[in-house]
Structures are given as C-alpha cells and as structure tokens.
Design a protein that fits this description.
Elements lengths: L4 H4 L3 H7 L9 E4 L3 E4 L2 E5 L12 H14 L14 H14 L3 E5 L2 H12 L5 E5 L4 H16 L8 E4 L4 H8 L8 E6 L11 H10 L2 E6 L14 H5 L7 E5 L9 E5 L1 H10 L1 H4 L6 H16 L2 H20 L10 E5 L3 H13 L2 E2 L1 E3 L10 E5 L6 H17 L5
Parallel strand pairs: 3-12, 5-6, 5-7, 7-8, 8-9
Antiparallel strand pairs: 1-2, 2-3, 4-10, 9-10, 11-14, 13-14
Helix pairs in contact: 3-12, 4-12, 5-6, 13-15
The protein binds 4'-deoxy-4'-aminopyridoxal-5'-phosphate (PMP).
4'-deoxy-4'-aminopyridoxal-5'-phosphate binds next to helix 5.
Length: 405
C-alpha cells in the first residue's frame, strides 16, 4: 500500500469542518491581548498562554524593534557556530540569576529544550522516569533517549519508565525496581499543560533522594504564574535547592518564542557541547531574545501582574464551579472545564465562539477518554468585564447543550 494512503483516507478533520464544528487553525486578524479578531468577529481570548499579557506591552515591542534594527532579522546559524549574540548570553545570565542556578542554556523553542536535554543526559544503562501525562515535548525527548539507548544495545524503551499521573507512590514503586546505582532523572511538568494541576514536588523530592535520582521540571506554565515573583514550581514549594533543573519556554509569560534550561554549570556546559537540538538548529532570533529580556524585566519589576493573573484565574475557577461545571482546584492560570464528551465539546466550542469567547477544545487522542474538555486560561490583562462576559456565555451555552441544568 502507498505510504500516503493513510493521509488520503484521513477524513476526521474535514468531517468536523463540514459540520461547522472545527475549532482549530482559526486565523487571528488582530490581537489586542484579551480581545482578538477572528474571521471579522471580536472575541474574548480565554485560551492563550500570554499569561501576563506582555505580547502587547510597548516596552516588549520596542525591544523587539530595536533588536531587529541592531542585529537584523535572524541569526542564520546555531549557537555553537555563528548564532550566538551578546543578547543570548545576557538572557542566559539573567535567567540563571532569576532562578538562583549556576547557569542557563537557551534553545530555539521549549519543545526543542526537552528534546535536547533528556537524550543528552540519559544514556544507555540510565533512566528517565516520567509522568504519563507529561507534555508532548518530554515524550519526544524520552523517545529519542529510548531510541539512542536501543541503538547502543538496550531493549526497546528500556531507558524510559512511566508512572501514573502525579502519583508519587506509583513513582516510588516504579523507581524502586531500577538499580539504585544507575543514573536517573525524574521529569515532570510543573503545572500540567492540560489540567493546570501542580506537580507534587515535595514527595517527588523525597523519592528522588531515596533512589539516587535527579529532577527536571518543565515550568512552561509556571513561570510568571506560581512561586515567589513567578519563579515557578520549585519556588512555589520552597524547594529550589532540591530541584536540579528547570526548563521553560518564552512562548507564554515571556511573550516571545524560545526555550531555556537552568541548572549546575557542569551540566549546562555538557549540554552545550552535546545536545543535537541545540547544535544542529539555528538560535532564537534577535527579536525573540530581546522581547524575552524585556518581558523578564517587567516580571521582575512588576510582580503585581502575577497577583492580578491569579485573581482572574481564581474568579473564573470559582465562577465556573458555582455554575455547576467540573473544574479542578489547582491554583494555576489554566482552568480546564471538563465535559467528558467529544461531540459536546465541539458543539460548545462553536456556541462559545459565536457568543464571543475563544477557548481551546481538547479531545481524544490529545486527552484520555472522559477528560474531553474546554481548556480555558487567563491573563493579567483580562478586565472584570471580560471575565463576566466569559462566565455569562458559559452559563448560556452550558444550558443550551444540557451540560448545566
Ligand atoms: N512544555 C509545556 C508544558 C508546554 O505546554 C509547551 C507548549 N505548549 C512546551 C513545553 C513547548 O514550548 P514551546 O511553545 O516553546 O515549544
């Protein structure tokens, strides 16, 4: 059979479009932050990760423009060779300081960061121990590590051990079967991207200490959201010294594009010279790095933005819950509205959009059965009138489709 046959017979997306229920790839024509224009319609954005609303901040825009004027539009090379600017070095120094770690390394996206870090650190006879609901970039990094180990003679997937979602008892049960002396790293989202749950880091640290494991936390949805001054999950629990490495992205709070990892100097130096995702890919553009530097400056100077973000997210979590929706109790900026049915999610998405609210529809296979949801997320720049409107539309739509009584 022709390799492309599966593509030609892939009809799911077209069927959803034909039914008028397709929630993906809608082009944004104007973006003011909390309000965007899509297909000529002004809608409130309740699905962005622009947590502090900084993509529209004049200082961030100005930094990007100045960087283009000074350095041009692209770096045309990898960090390793011709793609290191003084801007990259500056941002690495600023982030090391911000997280209280010895050193930092930038990657071109958050996704590439996990793909670079995990396989470089985990080699044959070593293990990555991973939450089964971790972000796709961690899964990709794990698969590369497993593939490389199997080239080196390991059994397929020997290098990767999965534990039940945020279940530290199961983590302990799985890790205790591995040789104590073997190198291991436990990897987890800090704030889980789909559910908004916060990882149980205190118990993870206890297990890591007992079984000779290092810890890497992906703080994509935590930086600028939880922890002191938005310093993420380790800071949220006061476990900065016990968390070996933190990675993150510039595509959310930092209003830009790119990724980073912070940790011990020796580890960062090793990654700098071994991570293919760094060495064989062009470095983040001058405008991306300059915007992230400007956004970090605002985060440091104006922590009250985080208070506003959390106030907004709490208002929405309690408002949706009071209405009768199923939400969770974790105190992050991601508030999933769990519907548990693909068709209802798609129909609700359409009615919400028509009512002037944009959210993200998460259906299978992206989420497990029963967890089909409308994932909402909030910004520091949402005003009460935006939030009240979102609640109103959710109430109307929930009754219309019979999810609320
Ligand atoms: N980690 C997590 C937990 C994420 O949610 C995301 C983005 N959705 C990434 C990593 C990837 O970041 P980026 O957009 O910079 O590739």
């Amino acid at each position: 059979m022709d390799l492309f046959e599966k593509c030609r017979s892939f009809t799911r997306a077209d069927e959803t479009k034909a039914a008028g229920l397709y929630p993906y790839f809608h082009a944004i024509e104007e973006n003011e932050g909390p309000v965007v224009t899509i297909e000529g319609r002004k809608v409130i954005m309740a699905g962005s990760n622009n947590y502090l609303g900084l993509t529209a901040h004049p200082d961030v825009k100005e930094a990007a423009i100045k960087a283009v004027e000074k350095y041009g539009t692209g770096c045309s090379g990898s960090r390793y060779l011709t793609g290191t600017l003084d801007l990259h070095v500056e941002l690495e120094a600023r982030l090391s300081k911000f997280f209280g770690k010895e050193d930092c390394l930038l990657f071109s996206t958050g996704y590439q960061t996990a793909q670079g870090v995990i396989p470089s650190l985990v080699q044959r006879g070593e293990y990555v121990v991973t939450d089964k609901d971790n972000h796709a970039c961690i899964v990709a990094g794990n698969l590369i590590a497993a593939g490389a180990a199997s080239y080196a003679g390991a059994k397929p997937n020997e290098a990767v051990v999965r534990y039940k979602h945020n279940d530290m008892k199961h983590l302990e049960a799985m890790i205790s079967r591995l040789p104590l002396e073997a190198g291991k790293i436990i990897v987890s989202d800090g704030v889980f991207s789909t559910s908004g749950e916060i990882v149980d880091l205190p118990n993870m640290v206890r297990v890591a200490r007992k079984y000779n494991a290092r810890i890497l936390i992906d703080d994509a949805h935590s930086v600028g959201v939880i922890g002191k001054g938005g310093r993420g999950t380790a800071s949220h629990y006061g476990l900065e010294n016990e968390t070996d490495m933190t990675m993150g992205t510039f595509s959310k709070t930092f209003a830009s594009l790119g990724g980073f990892v912070v940790g011990d100097r020796a580890v960062i130096n090793y990654l700098k010279h071994t991570a293919p995702a760094l060495i064989f890919s062009a470095s983040p553009t001058p405008a991306s790095v300059a915007s992230a530097i400007a956004a970090l400056g605002i985060l440091e100077r104006e922590p009250e933005r985080i208070d506003r973000l959390m106030k907004n997210a709490r208002k929405m979590r309690s408002g949706l819950k009071q209405m009768g929706y199923r939400v969770n109790e974790h105190d992050s900026a991601v508030v999933p509205v769990i519907i548990g049915d693909t068709e209802k999610v798609l129909i609700m998405w359409k009615y919400l959009f028509e009512g002037g609210v944009f959210v993200n529809a998460f259906i299978r296979p992206g989420v497990p059965p029963g967890m089909e949801m409308l994932r909402t997320s909030y910004m520091a720049t949402h005003e009460d009138e935006h939030l009240d409107k979102i609640l109103d539309v959710f109430a109307t739509v929930g009754r219309k489709v019979g999810v609320l009584s």
